[in-house]
Design goal:
This protein is mainly α. The chain is built from 3 helices and no strands.
């Protein structure tokens, strides 16, 4: 994989992760690196799902693929908020 592929994957991961985070209401207490990682995974998985459904390559903007990617990122962010945020709250309660 070329360096441009890695960079474009990171940029797409940042955008998809940020969009997924915006879809979830309230404050998400997870680090930005985790949001980027979720975005990268969601972008790859969303592309695979869109390809399997036959909607990955359309004439213009691939809105269905983008919607699948953002939905997966929102799901990933909400799961990680529950897992990561819960650990953080428990640690704060133990310190008190």
């Amino acid at each position: 994989m070329a360096i441009t592929g890695i960079l474009s994957g990171l940029i797409i991961g940042i955008v998809i992760g940020a969009l997924g985070r915006l879809v979830i209401p309230g404050r998400q207490r997870i680090p930005i690196w985790l949001t980027i990682a979720i975005g990268v995974v969601a972008a790859l998985a969303g592309t695979a799902i869109a390809t399997a459904l036959g909607v990955a390559d359309t004439g213009g903007v691939d809105w269905i693929e983008l919607a699948v990617q953002v939905a997966l990122a929102a799901l990933g962010v909400s799961l990680m908020v529950g897992l990561y945020g819960g650990k953080r709250r428990r640690r704060q309660r133990q310190r008190r």
